[in-house]
Amino acid sequence: xxxxxxxxxxxxxxxxxxxxxxxxxxxxxxxxxxxxxxxxxxxxxxxxxxxxxxxxxxxxxxxxxxxxxxxxxxxxxxxxxxxxxxxxxxxxxxxxxxxxxxxxxxxxxxxxxxxxxxxxxxxxxxxxxxxxxxxxxxxxxxxxxxxxxxxxxxxxxxxxxxxxxxxxxxxxxxxxxxxxxxxxxxxxxxxxxx
Length: 194
Hints:
Layout: H1 2-15, H2 22-28, H3 30-46, H4 50-64, E1 67-68, E2 73-74, E3 79-80, E4 87-88, E5 93-94, E6 99-100, E7 105-107, E8 119-120, E9 125-126, E10 131-133, E11 137-138, E12 143-144, E13 149-150, E14 158-161, E15 166-169, H5 175-184
Helix pairs in contact: 3-4
């Protein structure tokens, strides 16, 4: 756990120009406090100690303004910048080196059972106020614009903007990569921008 904490702090120091040193991050960043408490609650949750794990996560919410369900699966290097109002649902999966800004919701739509929340792969950035809803996948290196409402999968290295979100592919992607992805995910891209 301490090795992962050190990695998380190093990641914040690299990503946040306002972070001055290790002690400032460990003492003053609600993101780190929420993640430390989440990891303890997640350990208990994974050992079927549900009530205590939920109680611990609610205390973290009270003190940090960040709500992380202890059932969520979070990789290393999560940075929640500012943090206030962030909600991460029970079946959410977050890869490594993901950045979330204030007011982000990784939630459900209320229609699904089982896996109800999104999966964010590695190196995803989600802008302030964005809502990523349902059992969808946000590909590696993608960006979600501020206040976007994302209800469909997003291809790796793409940007999703608007309400409902539309996907903008990176210029570096080849037309074959785009067509291949769209072919596998036909239900997704009726309104895409290229």
